[in-house]
């Protein structure tokens, strides 16, 4: 009989690596199986409002007790949440994949609803002026460019980064992920309206023109009556001479 740990979904006793926390997701609420849901740390196998089970690469396997940040994104927004690693299951000859159990830390109801909505519908359904804390990636930094770059300069930076990180020519374990981020960044910044919207959300509105300090005009205001008196005296002298 194999000594490998049981599958997370099987109704068997948890492995020693998992401990009692192996069932924390099931105890809290029903799991939602996901299809194609990914975050910044890997693929999400199932998720609840209190935690998730992830599939990660062996090189990215964390340790029990680690605290990590996880970024979820749809076509418009990103949300970064914090989670505690509750259990870790290494790959075996039978499973051939690494699994991680994550418990969300201080997840407010609005963020929870956004994550669940993303898992079900593919978007977070965030409303404007929402009070969820959103973490945006600097898309210009992704392309190795500047906020003030022209479209031609952005295109050149995109081609350079895409060539460097294309999975066919780069054996880095996260090359495909970085290549996707580069494509997404250029897709947004190459569209003038989308770029303007990103600039507003990431950098904020452009500063208003600096108005002259009223106190700096006090001296000028004091001088104006003197100038007027001199003009009146000059006019009076001209009249007398006439």
What do you see in this structure?
- The chain has 242 residues and is an alpha+beta fold.
- Among the domains are: 19-121, Beta Barrel (Thrombin, subunit H); 139-202, Orthogonal Bundle (Helix Hairpins).
- It has helices spanning 24-28, 109-121, 139-142, 151-165, 175-189, 192-203, 218-241, and strands at residues 32-33, 38-39, 42-47, 51-56, 67-73, 78-89, 98-104.
- The termini are far apart.
Topology overview:
Elements: H1 24-28, E1 32-33, E2 38-39, E3 42-47, E4 51-56, E5 67-73, E6 78-89, E7 98-104, H2 109-121, H3 139-142, H4 151-165, H5 175-189, H6 192-203, H7 218-241
Helix pairs in contact: 4-5
Short description:
The chain has 242 residues and is an alpha+beta fold.
Question: What's the CATH class of the domain at 19-121, please?
Answer: Mainly Beta
User: What is the residue-mean pLDDT, rounded to a whole number?
Assistant: 75
**What's the helix count?**
7
Low-confidence stretches: 1-28, 129-134, 220-226
Residue fraction in strands: 15-25%
- Following the backbone from N to C, one meets helices and strands in this order, namely HEEEEEEEHHHHHH
Helicity, in percent? 25-40%
Silhouette: globular
CATH superfamily membership of the domain at 19-121: predicted glycosyltransferase like domains
CATH architecture annotation of the domain at 19-121: Beta Barrel
How many E-type strands? Answer: 7
Radius of gyration: 30 Å
SS class: alpha+beta
What is the fold-level CATH name, i.e. the topology of the domain at 19-121? Thrombin, subunit H
The main pleated sheet reads as: 7 strands, antiparallel
Q: How far apart lie the N and C ends?
A: 126 Å
